[in-house]
Amino acid sequence: MSITNTPPRGTQRSSDGAGRSRDVLLLGGLFGFVIIGIIGLAVATGWEETLQQFRKLTLWQVLALLGLSVVNYLFRGLRWHLFARRLGLDLTLAANLRHFIGGFAMSVTPGRVGELVRMRWIARETGWSFERTAPLVLIDRASDLIAMALILALAIVLSAAGIAGAVPVVLIALIAAFVATRPALLSGLATGMYRLIGRWGRLFAKVRRASASLQAFTHPWVLSIAAVLGLIGWLAEGVAFYALLTWMGAEIGLWAAVAIFVFATLAGGMTGAPGGVGGAEGAMIGLLLLEGVPLEMSLPATLIIRLTTLWFAIGIGLLVFPLAERQSTRGAHALERR
């Protein structure tokens, strides 16, 4: 058995190298953008007050924040493994976690399309085409939307303060998740869009074929377990944000902090910016200010939580990425020899 349409190895290494350099530049540019923005605001409010907030945190508290982020990654990784096995992929838990976590290295590509590198690794190791594994991306993203929308809705109900725009965000997330988990509806939507636009017939045909595979995920127990895993994962990061604010001395309730974190993450993603960079930070700072958290506290809290969630995930992904590349290449060679 062999994998077709594989470019010459020398050419592939060259293109992969150029792609990695571009990704590194993108990562560096986005990170610099966030840092410059935070520094600008810190200068406007006074360095001493902002730096004092950083000094309040101990090493153990920082490790606790990172640990809660790891809980998020592991539980969502277990969900990815559940979906992969349900789809019929005969891969070990270690392999699926390697693919899932390694894909974090591409989290800040536009629209997070870089995370589709997971599909490439699966294709190399199993011979499955992108079209067959595409439902994994759809169901994983839909599950995140469901979990975050449910957490946000619960947090709004349990917290004293409301968030302007939260209800539309919840509804948009739930509608998108509902469509992505309904094979017939997604297929019908793809057909309707093609008839309306009259272009990209091959793309919409692939969406229709991929939607048929979503049937494997529609069993109630699969969706229930996936929902629980997603809820635990995202709640862990929301609790981390609350703990961080408490350690800094902010007077804010648990569910208000969770609502702000989840809303800012969703809102940042909906801007289309890579990793929600810029939008998520702006929403987080603005909402904290509305909750009465002073700017000299909101700034470092936002920077720290983004470093210990988004950028920590990217860092782990960059460490796992080379391993995933090597293992997938070995898998491709093994398939070629069969």
Automatic annotation (TrEMBL):
Q: How does it sit in the membrane?
A: Multi-pass membrane protein
Q: Does the keyword Cell membrane apply?
A: yes
Q: Which UniProt keywords apply?
A: Cell membrane, Membrane, Transmembrane, Transmembrane helix
Q: Which Pfam families match?
A: LPG_synthase_TM (PF03706)
- Output the Gene Ontology cellular-component terms: plasma membrane
Q: Where are the transmembrane segments?
A: 24-45, 57-75, 145-177, 221-245, 252-277, 297-321
The entry's localization annotation reads: Cell membrane
* Highest rank taxon of the organism: Bacteria
Protein name per the record: Integral membrane protein
Q: What species was this sequence derived from?
A: Candidatus Rhodobacter oscarellae
